[in-house]
């Protein structure tokens, strides 16, 4: 359970570091970010707090997804209806954080009051961003067992295309969910990419059966490269938290997205032991993140 809690918290830490109240998220120079970090005393000298290091909309959407996954839903369709309701609510409660444009546009088409078509949104060629990927790690935590792979594939795709109705977008959701499940399973990092490729045909089959529409910038901007940057950072850094941050949180791309994914996966793999307490002690919404970690662990544990 501790690693589930660490995953939710460190996903928030990675997001807050990469975001830095919008300053580093919009900075195109990784060198400049590294220089500013050094002038602040380095990573170990940082003390994250809600005022100066807020979470971005990405973590709030991840928390929203997790909140639906721990409800007592009867079937997956009921889960999707709850996700629709919560996503629509989330768009009006982001507390001043700039929302992902694709999420805003797609949530306008979600229909909480339509029992049959609540989560059916029109195809959006611009819905290829990273927002689907950054809210899906909790899906892999909820359905981490190999025998739950079909559920993971379906839920990650449906959840992803509620807000990012383009394959590049919603397949990012599948990727981060899979990586999270591999981390919980204890699968060696070097196998993740290969095993991901084995699941792609299953995802394609599901899409062909259910999809409403088929269609054939910056580092981390798209749904397919944000998980890959996070994965590369994990491969290169191992259990070294500082090195992971250099590679996933402090670069001239969408560092809040890659940082959120990398931080969450790191938490599942290694926990909090090597992370300076100042980075998470006063993290915004830490208590709720830990609570969601506990609830995800409970929901994912088979009843005996």
UniProtKB/TrEMBL annotation:
PANTHER family: ADP-RIBOSYLGLYCOHYDROLASE (PTHR16222), INACTIVE ADP-RIBOSYLTRANSFERASE ARH2 (PTHR16222:SF23). GO terms for molecular function: metal ion binding. This is Uncharacterized protein. It comes from the Eukaryota. InterPro entries: ADP-ribosylglycohydrolase, Ribosyl_crysJ1, Ribosyl_crysJ1_sf. It comes from Albula glossodonta. The keyword Kinase does not apply. Keywords: Magnesium, Metal-binding. Mg(2+) binds at residues 56-57. Its cofactor is Mg(2+). Binds 2 magnesium ions per subunit.
């Amino acid at each position: 359970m501790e690693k589930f809690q660490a995953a939710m918290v460190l996903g928030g830490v990675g997001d807050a570091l990469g975001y830095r109240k919008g300053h580093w998220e919009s900075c195109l120079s990784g060198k400049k970010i590294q220089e500013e970090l050094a002038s602040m005393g380095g990573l170990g000298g940082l003390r994250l707090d809600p005022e100066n290091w807020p979470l971005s909309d990405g973590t709030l959407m991840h928390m929203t997804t997790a909140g639906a996954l721990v409800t007592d839903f009867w079937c997956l369709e009921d889960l999707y209806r709850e996700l629709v309701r919560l996503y629509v609510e989330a768009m009006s409660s982001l507390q001043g954080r700039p929302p992902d444009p694709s999420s805003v546009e797609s949530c306008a088409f979600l229909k909480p009051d339509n029992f049959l078509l609540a989560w059916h949104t029109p195809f959006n060629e611009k819905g290829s961003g990273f927002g689907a990927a950054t809210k899906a790690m909790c899906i892999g935590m909820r359905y981490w067992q190999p025998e739950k792979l079909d559920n993971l594939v379906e839920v990650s795709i449906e959840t992803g295309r509620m807000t990012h109705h383009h394959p590049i977008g919603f397949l990012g959701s599948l990727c981060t969910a899979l990586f999270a499940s591999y981390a919980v399973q204890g699968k060696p990092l070097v196998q993740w990419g290969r095993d991901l490729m084995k699941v792609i045909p299953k995802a394609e089959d599901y899409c062909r059966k259910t999809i409403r529409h088929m269609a054939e910038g910056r580092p981390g901007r798209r749904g397919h490269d944000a998980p890959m940057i996070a994965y590369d950072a994990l491969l290169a850094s191992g259990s070294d938290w500082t090195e992971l941050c250099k590679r996933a949180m402090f670069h001239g791309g969408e560092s809040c997205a890659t940082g959120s994914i990398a931080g969450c996966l790191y938490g599942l793999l290694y926990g909090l032991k090597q992370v300076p307490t100042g980075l998470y002690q006063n993290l915004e919404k830490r208590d709720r993140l830990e609570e969601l970690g506990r609830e995800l662990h409970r929901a994912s544990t088979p009843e005996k």
